[in-house]
Design goal:
Helix content is 52%, strand content 27%. It is α+β, with helices and mostly antiparallel strands. A three-stranded antiparallel beta sheet has the order 1-2-3, covered by helices on one side. A hairpin with a 2-residue loop joins strand 2 and strand 3. The protein is elongated, with a radius of gyration of 25 Å.
């Protein structure tokens, strides 16, 4: 007797509850669609830095040549829109530090934005 009355009471989620759950799921899918390309570009940027670190010819370049080579390699990896002001090159005791610090803002709706910051760097030992 008790089990049949429990089954009648358990009817599941209401239509309003399903709409709320669906709305939250759509929101996170929308955010994911906006963020994934930016993370893929950052991954390509990290690969370029790794390739430059392993390339011995880059160690012999001047800072301007390093920057030009970096931009060229980004374009090869399909990263076309990149602000070159985000690149800093500093001479250090044990080599040359090549840093890329940038921020990406993606609009979600109205005045709401997703802000992502990335910081990548590598150290080129002296030739």
């Amino acid at each position: 007797m008790k089990s049949t009355s429990m089954i009648k009471k358990q009817r599941g989620m209401t239509m309003l509850s399903w709409m709320v759950v669906l709305g939250i799921a759509v929101f996170f899918i929308l955010i994911g669609i906006k963020m994934i390309p930016t993370y893929m570009e950052n991954h390509a940027l990290q690969q370029v830095l790794t390739a430059m670190t392993n390339d011995i010819k880059v160690r012999q370049m001047s800072p301007a040549e390093m920057k030009k080579n970096f931009i060229k390699r980004l374009k090869i990896n399909s990263v076309y829109e990149f602000d070159t002001k985000a690149i800093t090159i500093k001479k250090e005791k044990f080599g040359t530090r090549f840093s890329v610090d940038y921020e990406v803002r993606k609009p979600v709706g109205g005045n709401v934005f997703i802000v992502m910051t990335f910081s990548n760097s590598t150290l080129f030992p002296p030739p």
